[in-house]
Amino acid sequence: MPTGLAVDCNGKIWVANLETHNAMRINPNAGPQGKNLYPIGAVDLTVDLGTGAQHSGVWANRRADPYAYSDMTGFVTLGSTLSSGSWTFVHDEGVTRAWNRLTWSSYTPSYTYMSVQARAANLVTDLPNLPFQTVLYNQQMTGVSGRYLEVRVTLHRQALNTSTPRLYSLTVHAP
What we know:
Layout: E1 2-7, E2 13-17, E3 22-27, E4 42-48, H1 75-80, E5 84-98, E6 101-107, E7 112-121, E8 133-135, E9 145-157, E10 166-173
Antiparallel strand pairs: 1-2, 2-3, 3-4, 5-9, 6-10, 7-8, 7-9
């Protein structure tokens, strides 16, 4: 019992199946040929969404029952949620050091941008008490020293813009 479908950026079709508790991906260019030799498509991946075994009470051991009549694509969510999100990590160098620079690979389409910030301390518990400093790509950081380096990457997009920036990789450089 399919309850919703969406097309991903690779042209594959995703279907949420209520009664079989799974999602299927369909390759529209695969499978047998129909009228005028057009491919009918074929399922090339099935993802079992499992049970609610990690839940307790009324949700314990309930099947996933994916229901997606309304908006499986997330378009409504995209238009109603915040237009930015952050990824933060802490790197433990093991010794105190003055941090040098950061480089990254990213994609920022029109009306989007990315900001990178860093801070460092000798104790991880001191990090929340320190301000983040904005970091420019491959530029020398000043005043960022300590055993623990915390980096925060924030991805931004303008309201009602459906393009999203992407961070592919980030490299920490030390002297």
